[in-house]
Amino acid sequence: MPEVLLLRSASSILRTAFLSRWLPGGPRCVHKLSFVRNLQCRQGVRLNVRSSSLTDRQPLSKESLNHALELSVPEKVNNAQWDAPEEALWTTRADGRVRLRIDPSCPQLPYTVHRMFYEALDKYGDLIALGFKRQDKWEHISYSQYYLLARRAAKGFLKLGLKQAHSVAILGFNSPEWFFSAVGTVFAGGIVTGIYTTSSPEACQYIAYDCCANVIMVDTQKQLEKILKIWKQLPHLKAVVIY
Predict the structure, then answer these.
(1) How far is CA 22 from each of CA 19, 201, 237, rounded to the nearest angstrom?
(2) Could you tell me the pTM of the whole model?
(3) Please, which residues have CB within 8 angstroms of residue 129's CB and are 6 or more apart in sequence?
(4) pLDDT (tens digit, 9 = 90+) per residue, 89-123?
(5) Terminus-to-terminus CA distance in the chain, angstroms?
(6) Which H helix or E strand runs over 181?
(7) CA 122 vs CA 108, 143, 147, 184: distances in Å
(8) Domains of the chain with CATH codes
(9) 137, HSE (Cβ side, Cα atoms, 13 Å)
(10) ∠ Cα 228 231 181 (to 5°)
(11) How far does CA 205 lie from the centroid of its chain?
């Protein structure tokens, strides 16, 4: 049996089990991930949604949310930022820059997915964002919880070595963790790449190589085994995470 170490990344981002053996074709980086096991929750704040197993049956507090927001307030958009000299309307490079198609009659400046999500919290923070069934029971995640979980996923991906304009590939069925991974990837400056669960190892290798995946998320042992077979052919891959 491989030795299992429980490590905690910076700021209690997430709890990860590292298998300390050199896996075929890859580093010692297969992780079993719980997005929210280390969330610090204080009492005295009541959300308008039922708690979820993803938050250990405890609602995320306003204090933890406010602390996260203090660290992530989007900077005001500088008009000069959008006066870049790029003229091309398209690019094939993941890190390429293009001229934005902005109608002269539109007064709204472009802004990021993170800023859009952040500003939505004022209106919808305590409302239900996701509903899902676990053990035949409906559970719900609010927009505020969604935001915090996505931020923690983003920090985890950066800790695992995600580089800007590189990808997190997600190989799993529809689930809340799929969406936390996807939004977290965007928050971290990466590119989300979905892989069909029915894809062969060869198809997974082609997609993961083409998108320069630094991290691959899988939902089952079966999907993990596909990646282990092709790890040698994925030079950018730094970690595989089982959620």
Answers:
(1) 8, 20, 14
(2) 0.72
(3) 141, 142, 143, 145, 146
(4) 888 888 888 888 888 888 888 888 899 999 999 99
(5) 21
(6) helix 176-187
(7) 19, 10, 12, 20
(8) 112-242 (3.40.50.980)
(9) 6
(10) 80
(11) 21
